[in-house]
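Practice problem: TonB-dependent receptor
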Amino acid sequence: MGRLGSWLLAGLGLVASAWALAQQQGADTTMPVVRISAPALGAGSARSSSVLEADVLARQPPGLDPFKQLARVPGMQTSSGDAITGSYSMRLTLRGLNKEQIGISVDGIPNGSTLSNGGAMPHRLLESANLDSIEVSPTAGDLGTPSNQALGGYIDFRTRDPALTRAVYGELSGGSVGYRRAFLRFDSGQSASGLSAYADISRSFQRTWPGQHSGRNLRWHADLRLLQDLGGGSSLRATLSYNRFADNDYEPVALRAISAPFYKATFEGDPGSDGLNDRWTGDPAQDQNHRGTHGINSRDILAHIDWTQRFGSGAQLVLKPYLHTQDGYGWFYVPYQQAPADGQAYSVVPPGGAPVASAQECFAGQYRRNADGSLQPLPRAEFPAGASAATLKALGCPAAAAFAMNPPTQWGARLATTRRSDYRIRRQGVLTEWSMALGEHQQLRVGAWYEHIDRSKSRNWYAVSDPLRNGDFDAARGPYSVTHDRRYLVNTVMAYAQDRLELFSRRLQLSAGATWQRSRESYASPVEFYGTRSLGAASGLLPKFSALYRADGGWELFASRARNFSAIPDSVFEGTAAISAKRGIQPETSVNSDAGLRWLRGAYGFGLTAYAIDYRDRISIQNGKPDADIFSRDATTTFSNQGGIRSRGLELSAQANWRQVELLLNYTVNRARYAEDTPAEGIRAGDPVLGARRRTGFAEITWKPRRAWRLSVNASYAGTAAGTYGEVPNTVIAGGPAAYPREYMPAYTLVGLALSYRPGGEWGGGCRRCELLLNADNLLNKRYLGGLGSELANSNPLTTGRYFLGSPRALFLTWRSSF
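Answer key — structure tokens:
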């Protein structure tokens, strides 16, 4: 296990010794009864809602990706390639929809896209040690929540404000696969003028777990927050966050050997490997599978201001301007070189012209056999060459299958390229809302949101200096080829209004409102086409209604219905995309409904919710050449609105808190189905939605024998989920099966543990808040498929079943203290 493993064992021994001492001292009989957490069950909300509060979040391993904090929310499933983060392999589903169909915000500021490469996952915009609460609205967010993708729910991550007293807080963590993390925060305390602030910095490092751990995840993060109390409930808050990370992630795998020709590994063949290797061989065809040859680097800066101005006791104005910038790139190593046929690195398409064809070269000495049997040297092999690539799979050059090669002993020098996709984002926007009370039982809200996005991404090809040694290249020489240079401009405007009434001595709460949203996009890529393409979409009026009735005995009944809108994604512009619908591309919409009841009384509570989601006008890629790269200039890609998804389900939640024991349970039954036939993808109406678990559940029991001790054990269950579309005829692999049957991701149950000890003043008065925390994730070391790479799927049946391995057992030991 190494030094870290020895340290962890020593830490476990220390915890065990302290635990035994606590038992000898006897239970603390002065502990008060703890009432249940009403926000966790959504109490007081007129729609389905769950709030994870600071004390719950503090039990999780420090540095945990905020998405993974959501495992205890009913209907939510999260997973990634490792126990802490995993940006590319991070999967999230909620009531049958994925993370690209759920709205996300940090302190009310929209995060934009949740794509790992060219988007902004929430862990890049906040520090987990500063999380104060997470609010999840599975059906629809509160009126006015800003998002271009909230078709089925909304998640808002809220971070803490500066402390009123001066303090220094720190965390040190170590764990499995080389995990190391340090965090330090300084709170200034509140001055006589009402100004308070904090600044923090953290660094975390972890290696990838398969193989010999050649990959790594390195992250630096820093925050600065100023809060000025303006008196009378008014305040001015300014926040600046900086994040930089470098990540070698995990490769998708196939479920079984039937798909092996297109994958590096299969789950049934080896559930502990994703097929990537750790040793450099000098052969580019093999080294393209080296873990260090592909990953993501990114730097994010988020700045925002929250000005809240109160006018008397019944009116309030909120103004939130923000700016988010991102610079990064993803890279991948390939065993060939690809350049425009005209020999120029950057070839602009002229008016009325077509893009310059690209060509590949795998070997410096490549030949074509003439009719008389002689070999004619070729400078490059044109791609596509009009022939199957299967023959040359082992050689690592898909184009050369169309050519007769000279004997391997006469092959020339191997060529290799680092293909780097550079991306840049600049988002700036503002949110504002005016709310006022009309008497004691009515409140009006009106608000607006504006955002401008300037986003670019390019695919640049760099010649590797010496493939025999490593994948390094000379960036100063610039790329030898640029196959796309894309720029997107997006403007979004949203307006909303709501009227809320309270009747019958505030037993009945009624809300009626509506949202309107418009998005306009333009797209240019000089090496792919001439000019600029543009597209606009408006939502029309999106009504939202909700009702809450509070009955005697702690009972609540609620119901809500909301129509939601998702702007047309800019992916419809990419490549040589075409739109195959008489109406053109229409924005995706959904109608979300839920109804339920809650009961909360003292130490007990439960909730029951039924929901329905009708997701319409689903936009889908229809690739004209399934095994082509849709991001190259050679592909023909078509987009159209194809049917939708119908999701129906039932959620049950229960909590009980006693003096020494807490209990949490939730269970969800979800039926998510495609609503219409989409023959191009092999989908029939009624087929299960890819990656949507049929049943999920979570249970946790916490024991607190003394005030200083807490032990929590939990179990998370995920039922089966479809991994591929319905049975599809084999048109790709010669000699393969006649058809590919639907695959299902197996069900699994994971067990976790959290043990904490807070000595209080026993170890000296200087440590006001000290804690020793031990976390175990996947304690029983279950091997499982955590999620589906749905964004990697297209109409080819061999590329729908792309799965990510779930993380193995991981242990983490943390020391927290505040002075």
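Discussion: The chain has three helices and 44 strands. Students who identified this feature from the tokens alone can consider the problem solved.
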